[in-house]
Amino acid sequence: KTIVKDWIQGLYAGALVKSGKVVEGVYEFSKLFSEDKINSHLSYYNFFHIKTNEQWNELLNLAKSNEEKTKFYALRALNENSNVIEELQNIYTLDKNSKWFDFTLYRELLNTQHFFDQHSEYERNFPYKKYIEFLKTVKKDDMYLVNLSLAYFNLYEKNFDESTKITEELLKNYPNSHEVQTLSYILYLEKLNSVDIKTENDIYEKMSKLTKNETNSTSIHDYTFVVLEKLYLKQNDKFNAFLANHINYLDDSVFDLALLEKFRIFMENPKDSKIKEHFASKYEAQKLLTKENDKFVLSKNLLNTKTKLLINNLKFKEALELNASILNEKVQFNPFNGLIRGNNRSGKQDTMSIKEFLEKVIVIQNELVKNPKSVMDNYLYANALYNLSYFGNSNILTTVYRSVYSFNDYDLQKEKIDLSIKHFTIALEEAKEKEFKAKITYMLAKSELSSYDINYSNKTKDYFNKDLDRYDLERFWYYGNEKVYDEYIKNNYGKYFDKLKNEYSDTNYYNELIRECANLRVYQKRMKEKPKPAIH
Questions:
Q1: How many domains does the chain have?
Q2: What is the DSSP letter of 353?
Q3: Looking at the predicted structure, is the pLDDT value of residue 405 above 90?
Q4: Would 404 be classed as within a structural domain?
């Protein structure tokens, strides 16, 4: 009575199949289909050898009892293409109290738990109504699993009255069953149409009772907040929906300035329900904020996040005054540079910290107030604005997480690029030296490209946070495909590329530019093949 006996059984069954005695081999494999057999899966894996009605009837004739026949039906029901209701009926006809009926039904009940998937949008089209109609006809000595299934299937169909009736009967007969208590709680959640402070307290109390002894699974807890998020959104309570959505993990990158401040105030103020207290405890455990003199202050990471958000909003003085630890970090690439190669990147710059950058940009802003037409100040400020955008060399100063093909702060990106064009234009109008004017014109061309990318980006929903909009860049997907520039030309973009050729082609800067800048070369090539509209 060891595992060796099971091994011998499996080898014997396989030898029969290999020698051509397929039905006999499958029959011997079926003997392994039991909870006390370690290789029970071999029964299912080899059941596919039964492919015809003749083989099936021959297998049934080998059965020595109805118990074996019902096991065959259960094995056949495991096939993904099987008609499970039909197999349940076959088992029920032979033995209404068969353990294989419960085995097959329980497996189907488990399959329907996909109803609770939090992220999947895949439609499984489980035939709940057919199962309900069939199970209504079933009369077993022990109806526990049948009624549990009926309660869930009716719940999925939103037959709440019927599901409630069955669930209440189950609670009466099985008051200590965790399965039934969970069913009752899920039914309670699904029946909710709104949420208020009293409801939040009720939910917390019910959830706590069910989860207090859980050590590995968090499914009841997590699904609670899936439902809560939907209810909050239904009431247009986006902040609490946000808290519910991120109950297990709150990433710094989800914040904007307004949301971050709202979050800090929420953590600091007294909570009006047990659910709100639960929110606070979960987020406090993540060490997003620290408590000092009964006040919540941003953690080091969140303080750095706020600094980046302030820079992204062009609030340089406020970012400097936060005095976050990130200010001591070096800026990898000089934000005041406007270079041809790469994305204004030309080797590491280890001479300027973020603090020094902020101090310098504030000085430039002040100079522009005194002298709005200062060529160099307008040029340097415009470079900084461009480089702080998604398209520049220092966007790491303005974002926690940078996607390679999309951005989420449309208005802020547009503001930076529009402002860069404004200040580059002033610098170009006031500059005297031709080589420098060519350089400014090239930066205007780059800003115009970015403006096109922003204006013609495709708005989508963030994969993980459906409440967050993202903007996919059209040119990203066409990297190496020159035809994308036809749309650029068609929509009257490219005047600065034209200006470079028409007014500065005799400069050293332009000659270097035409060698290095693929955008300019491709634009000019497409212009030859596809004439530009007459009016810009």
A1: 1
A2: B
A3: no
A4: yes
